[in-house]
């Protein structure tokens, strides 16, 4: 599951293990936003400290959603 992760105008996606990384963030409190289709989005407060690796462990909860069928069609252009 490749989850979208946003932080201070930056964004990334997780790898297949759910891991992600932001580098060179100034020390400060941040709001980390995690989202994926079919899961409840989550916002987590985190404090980044200088010269320190900050680890956040969280789990997204599934939510029922309705996806609708989409039909795509095309016509060949005439010469």
Write a concise synopsis of the structure shown.
Helices cover about 0% and strands about 30% of the residues. It is built from no helices and four strands. The model has no long low-confidence stretch (mean pLDDT about 90).
Written overview of the protein:
The protein is mostly beta strands. It is 0% helix and 29% strand. The chain has strands at 4-7, 10-13, 28-35, 42-48. A four-stranded antiparallel beta sheet has the order 2-1-3-4, with no helix packed on it.
Write a concise keyword list for the protein shown above:
79 residues, mainly beta, four-stranded antiparallel beta sheet
Helices and strands, with pairings:
Elements lengths: L3 E4 L2 E4 L14 E8 L6 E7 L31
Antiparallel strand pairs: 1-2, 1-3, 3-4
Approximately how much helix is present in the residues?
Answer: under 10%
SS element count, helices: 0
User: Which H/E pattern describes the elements?
Assistant: EEEE
- Please report the distance between the alpha carbons of the first and last residues: 44 Å
Overall 3D geometry?
elongated
Strand content: 25-35%
Low-confidence stretches: none
**Main beta sheet, described?**
4 strands, antiparallel
Q: What value does the Rg take, in angstroms?
A: 18 Å
